[in-house]
Amino acid sequence: MDMEAPLQSLHQRILEDIRECILSGAWPPGFRIPFEHELTAEYGCSRMTVNKALSQLAKAGLIERRRRSGSFVTRPKSQAAILEIHDIGTEVEALGLPYRYERLERHRRRAIAEDRRQLGFSGGSVLELLCRHFAGERPFCLEQRLINLAAVPEAGDEAFDETAPGPWLTARVPWSAAEHAISATEAGGATASILGIAPGAACLVVERKTWNAERPITHVRLIYPGNDHRLVARFSPPGE
Fold this sequence. Notes:
Layout: H1 7-23, H2 36-43, H3 47-59, E1 63-66, E2 70-73, H4 79-82, H5 88-94, E3 99-110, H6 113-119, E4 125-135, E5 138-148, H7 165-172, E6 177-186, H8 189-195, E7 202-212, E8 215-225
Antiparallel strand pairs: 1-2, 3-4, 4-5, 5-8, 6-7, 7-8
Helix pairs in contact: 1-3, 2-3
């Protein structure tokens, strides 16, 4: 252990070490992680540095901090919560229609300002994908996706010719948090052509970001013809 390492590097090392133990399954749900004073002794750092790392892990939902008891690996989300990130192929098949996918564009490049805004990171390399999903013979959804290659470097070698990026990412990269934004828009000329609808037609837009701890994984914008789609949310009163 480098006792002269800067405070930030020690903080990041503690964060990554604990995150790896959790995501690898070495520390299962309910496992009590070492106390703050134990981590302070192990890493040769201040208690403030350890506390900062644990606070970030708690904010990301990977651990639960209990007063006087310590910190514990959280239980996994219920199946219903996981299924809030839907697989488009499954959506189509639930309609009783054959599903088909095609990749329209693929670009690996350095992030521009808009990429940094969408992903919420300082920069690096990204993979940009434009994909179309079909229900039967009709276009079902247009997918515009950015993947942070620092978080998912293996995506840079994947063509995505046969497999859509959504299920590919879900199968390979654990995510700890997701954010959805829903809006409406009018189809521009290019979007209208891809979806086979009239320019200016109403579209439903679902934007989603996912993170692994605090590292952004992907930003996706899904555009659906508005007349054919609706969103349904099922929920219960608090405490039930």
